[in-house]
Write a structure and sequence with these properties.
This protein has 1 helix and 2 strands. The chain is of the alpha+beta class. It has one domain. The termini are far apart.
Length: 45
Amino acid sequence: MSTEEIKVLRAKILEGLALSYKRLLLAKQKEDGELVFSKKGKLFG
């Protein structure tokens, strides 16, 4: 893969992650759910 192809692929992956996160937030808002994150075993959110 060329450097340009890697940049395009990376951009598409990041765009997909952002879209997935946005959809998750919207789903949690609709069901009045809770979204909790964990970092190194500690919960926050």
